[in-house]
Please model this.
Amino acid sequence: MGTRGIVVFFIVFAVFLFASSALYTIKESERGIKKQFGRVIDPDLKPGLGIKLPIIHEIQRFDGRVIGLDLRSEEYITQEKKRLIVDSYLMWKIKDVGLFYTSTGGSISTAQRLLAPRVNEGLRNKFGERTVYEVVSGEREQLMVELTKQVNDLTVSAFGIEIIDIRVKRIDLPPNVSGAVYERMRAEREREAREHRSKGKELAEGIRADADRQVRIVLAEAYQKAEVIKGEGDAKAASTYAQAYGADPEFYEFYRSLLAYRNTFGNKDDVMLLSPKSEFFDYLKGPKLGR
Model:
C-alpha cells in the first residue's frame, strides 16, 4: 500500500470515528438531555437517533419508566391520639427531565431521598386529621388519592418528578400497646359471644316450649277424635247387637244363659249355692216354651 492509500485509510477511519461519536440513540424507555460544556442546551431529547458534536456535546440518559420506592416504616398519630406504625410505598417517574437533572443531579437515589420526607410529612398530616377507623378502612382510598395529588403538585414543580401513586401496605399498632388492644378486642368478642349464646338459649327454650305445647295440642285433639270414633263404633256395635237380638229375644236369652254357664262352671273347684227353682237353671231343666 502506498503513501496515498495510507492517508486515505486514516481519513476514512477518522470520518468513521467522527460519525460514530456524533450519533446517539435514545430508547423508548429512556429520557435524555444534551449538555454543552456542562450546561443543558436540550432538556428533553426525543426517543430515536440524534446528532451531536463530539467533545462539545454530551448526552446523559435517565430511566423513563415508573420507579418504585419502599418507604421506611414510620409511626403516625391519629385524630384520637392513637399511634400507628405505617408501612407504605410510592410509584414515580421523571416528568420534566431538565428540572429533574438540575434538582437532583440526575441521581435516582438523590431523587428518592428528596421524595421520602415529603411523602412521610403528607402521611403524618393526613393521619392526624382522621380516626383509626377512617385510615384503616373508612376513608383510606380517599386519603391516598388526596395525598398523591398533594405530593405530586409539590414534586412536579420542585423536582420535575410525577407521583403516580402512593399506597399504604400495612398498618400496625406499636408493640407496647398492641397487647392491651388485643386483650380489649378479645374481651369484646367474648362478650358478644356470650350475648349470642344467651340469645340462642332463650330462642331454644322458646322453640322447645312451643314444640311441647303443640305436642300436647296434637295429643289432645287425637284423643278427642279417638274417643269420638270409639263412641261412634260402640254406638254402631250396640245398634247392631240390638237389631240382631231383637230379631229373636228367646234365642238371645238362651245365648246369654250359655255364656253364664260357661263362665260359672269353667273351673271344677268353683262352688255355688242356688235354689233349684232359680231362673239360672231354667235351660238346664228342659227347653222353655216360646213366649
